[in-house]
Structure formats: C-alpha cells, structure tokens
Design brief:
By secondary structure, this protein is an alpha+beta fold. The chain has 16 helices and 18 strands. Strands 10, 11, 12, 13, 14 and 15 form a six-stranded antiparallel sheet that branches.
Length: 502
C-alpha cells in the first residue's frame, strides 16, 4: 500500500484497493486448492518505479505450463498465441524459457532446450494442427477452461451478448446470439460483465484516447473482438463509465506487421527495447525516453514528446549485432532470415546511419549526433540523458551477461536497422464504475441491481496508472473471485455488510 500511495496519488484512496490487496492471496490459494490452475514463481520482476515502498520482486505469481491435450476436443476452441510474438504458433514463456531462446546459438544447454521445445512443437503441429505445450496466458485460460468443464459449466462460444434483460431496474439475464439462433439466459442472482474492455472500439478510442491515436491511429495488441460490448450493455442498464483516469489505456509501443494474406498484425514491443545496441528516436532523430522503462512509460513519453496535432510515432533502431542477437519487433534473431521483413517495408535498413536516416526520413545529422552521444556514454555504462540502466527493472530487462551495464551498449556496426513504432496498448483502463464488491454503479454511485463487472470492463483499480506487472490480470482474477463469492452468498474479506450482501 505504501508503494501504491506513492504511485497513485489521490487514487490510492479508492476503497477497492485494500479489498484487492487482502483478497488477492485468498484468490491465489482458492485456485491452487480447488481448480486446475497451478502457480509458479513470478517473483523476479521488480516494480516498474523505484518510489517509496517499491519491491525488487515478490509481488507476482505466474501460471505453470499446461498440456493442451488435457482439454480434449475443447483445445480447438482455445485461441492460439498471438502470431507476431510466437514461433510458428509456439508460445515462449517469459523468464528462463525466453532466455534459452535468446542464447540458443551461444550456449549448448540452451540449444538443447530449444531443440527439444521445437521438436515437440513440430510434432504437435503434425499430429494436432497446433502446439499443445501451453504457456503464459494461453496456459492460464486453458487451465480455467478445464476447471469450468470439470464443474459442468456450459461454455457457449461465438455468442455475443446483444442485450441485458431487466425486471424494473434489476438485471436478470442476457440475450445472446449463437450459431443456433438467439439464446436467452436467465440469471437469478446477477450478470457479470467481462468482455475485455474497448481497445478496438473506434468511437470510444476517439472519445477517451485521442492522444494515443484515437479510433483510426491506435493499434492494440488485445484480441480484435474486444470492442466495448460490456460497457455499452451496462450503460443501457444505467451503469456509468469512469473516464477520469491517468490513462484510458494500458499503453504499449506497437509496430504494424504486414502479413502474407494482406492483413496486418500488431506486435507489442515488450522485451527488446532494453537490450544493448538498441535505441528509440523520434521523427527529429533525437531520443525522447528511457527505452528500458516499462512499455506503458515508453509510449506515454512518446505521446508527451509529440507536438500537438501530429500523430505519435518513432523508430526503434538496432545495429547489426543487436538485430541478430535480439531481433527487432517481429523480425526474429539469428538464424531467422530478414528478407521478407525488408521487402514488405516493415524493416528499414542502411549500410550506414546516414543511409538508415534516408530510409526512415530522419535528419541524418541529428541521428548521427544522437548515436554518437549515446555510444560515448553507453560504453561506460551510463545514460545521463534518461538514466537508462539505473533501475533494477531496466537492468533485468537487459542482458545479464553484458558489461558494464546490462541495458546499455553502443550501436557500432552496420547495417543499421529500424522498425516504425506507433501508439498501441495491451488493453483498456477506463471502464465501468464499480464498488469493492465488483457491483456496477450508476451516475449517482448506487449499485445497479444484479450487475457486476470485472477485468477490463471494470475501471482500473489503479486509476489508470501502471505501477507494476500484473496490474490488469491480478485485479481481474481477484475481483472475479470476489464477485463469485458475493453471488454465492459467501463472505468477502474487507467488504462492508452492505457490499457483502450483493
């Protein structure tokens, strides 16, 4: 709570926060004891900012990998990993698994690990049409699905909710569209909205996030079906949207990736920005941020550095060694080829920095000056301009084997490469006003009877701030757990008697 007070300011007075902090551990224990969810250590990630109360780790849990065969025929209904950040559809877990892939051409132990992973994945593709070693969010959703199936929950896919049913002011169910026709669902105790927020709702993006590109210029990496349905349904029923937040979106730098079929993908740049030999520059050829800070902070800095009336964008630049060691966006590291990315225009290259500047329409002199200044300091492990590599988070995101600073290395050897970065997100923060029992509130702050919201349909419990990893999934699962207990008539730690009654 000390850390949240230093990060959130007056938003730390949100009455949902202490309930979240008290029930988070209970939620983790509940899933470990009663479901197919299995947790593993996620504690190496430090808080994003070194403000009072920050932790060097210990905040997080991650989900254990899962064998997709345990889902039986339901595996066909599980969304595969995001194409742009997977390898032939194979998810790569954060932490040690990802480290092995980066070291596969440099360390025999890592090469063996990668060979085993690829061997299993290719075998799964041949036999089952998709990878079955599930990691990260894919594993979490699979484990939750398995838990629901084990309890006889009816899962209805591709069934958008078109309207909420009401008896007076009370929400009593929903009307869905299914492949078999309309379906009416009656809910004796309440309806829970969890439709993923509005990262692909152009109208709401125009209204709440114009600086982040609005409806036409925002490129979220969230699922394309997250189009704000839950918010619209709740508004009709009397619910209100909280839009007075530090940020309406969980921002992330994204590049637009051309696909062979003519469509495009959105690659979230979460990892390589902090690696040695990589920097970001604006259209003026100058750095504007600490590239190793959190994805939310980097895009926030880009928006702040963009003159009014101009569309935010920048270039992520790597020298040849960094490109082949770490990759750049959707361009994977050695031994993967780069020709297709160059031919599509996704990857820009130049034999010299001047050549790269011309390829990216950057001022050559400014880019040369920027790189020269960065290189001189990076060789000593310093960044007096933006203090990159000074925080634990920066150093963890870098290369632990690189000296003198894991996050800083000069750009020295051509050809030099660049990828264009535009505004994107991992999801939305603005959402429905709720109380600590996850009940949707109307404009007067009164609960809408029978209506609950969790996940990204609920307004950010962090007030639109992004203090640490897991601040969307953690509250999403915790308030889902809280809503479940309220609906079941069970007590919830920290709720008032009135909130507990639902």
């Amino acid at each position: 709570m000390t850390y949240l007070r230093s990060e959130l300011g007056n938003r730390a007075g949100d009455p949902r926060l202490p309930v979240f902090l008290r029930n988070g551990p209970e939620m983790v224990r509940f899933f470990a004891d009663h479901t197919a969810v299995r947790w593993i250590d996620g504690n190496r990630i430090p808080d994003f900012h070194e403000t009072p109360g920050h932790a060097a780790g210990g905040r997080s849990v991650s989900v254990a990998p899962y064998d997709g065969r345990e889902l039986g025929p339901w595996i066909a209904r599980l969304r595969p990993p995001l194409e742009e950040i997977s390898l032939w559809g194979m998810g790569i877990a954060s932490g040690a698994d990802l480290d092995h892939f980066f070291k596969a051409t440099r360390a025999p132990r890592s090469a063996l690990h990668v060979a085993r992973r690829l061997g299993r994945h290719l075998g799964d593709l041949v036999r089952h049409g998709r990878g079955l070693h599930l990691v990260n969010g894919n594993a979490l959703v699979a484990r939750l699905m398995r838990s629901a199936l084990d309890r006889g929950v009816r899962l209805v896919g591709s069934a958008p909710a078109r309207a909420l049913l009401r008896d007076g002011t009370r929400v009593t169910g929903a009307r869905l569209d299914t492949a078999e026709g309309p379906l009416t669902v009656r809910a004796a105790r309440g309806v829970v909205l969890a439709t993923g927020g509005f990262p692909h709702d152009p109208a709401r993006l125009d209204a709440l996030a114009p600086a982040a590109g609005g409806g036409a210029g925002h490129h979220s990496a969230a699922p394309r079906g997250n189009t704000g349905d839950g918010l619209r349904l709740a508004e009709v029923a009397g619910g209100g949207v909280e839009d007075r937040l530090a940020s309406a979106l969980a921002l992330a730098p994204v590049s637009v990736v051309p696909r062979a079929d003519g469509s495009t993908g959105h690659f979230p740049h979460l990892v390589e920005r902090a690696k040695p030999g990589i920097i970001a520059v604006g259209p003026d050829g100058r750095r504007f941020c600490n590239e190793a800070d959190s994805y939310h902070d980097v895009l926030t800095a880009l928006i702040a550095a963009t003159p009014p009336g101009q569309a935010p964008f920048c270039w992520l630049i790597a020298d040849h060694a960094a490109l082949r060691r770490w990759g750049l966006g959707a361009v994977r590291p050695f031994p993967f080829p780069t020709g297709a990315a160059r031919r599509s225009g996704y990857l820009r290259q130049g034999a010299t920095l001047a050549d790269l500047a011309r390829a990216c329409d950057l001022p050559p002199e400014a880019l040369a000056d920027t790189v020269a200044r960065f290189n001189a300091h990076a060789a000593r492990g310093e960044d007096p301009d933006f203090h990159r590599g000074a925080s634990r988070y920066n150093r963890l995101q870098g290369d632990a084997d690189h000296r003198p600073n894991p996050s800083l290395g000069p750009l020295t050897r051509g050809p030099f490469s660049a990828v264009r970065i535009v505004p994107g997100s991992l999801g939305s923060f603005a959402g429905l006003r709720t109380d600590a029992a996850a009940r949707v509130l109307d404009a007067a702050g009164r609960p809408v009877p029978g209506l609950f919201a969790v996940g990204n349909d609920m307004a950010s419990v962090m007030g639109g701030h992004y203090p640490s990893g897991g601040i969307t999934l953690g509250p999403g699962m915790t308030f889902g757990y809280i809503a479940g207990r309220v609906l079941a008539g069970l007590p919830v730690t920290g709720l008032t008697e009135q909130e507990d009654a639902g």
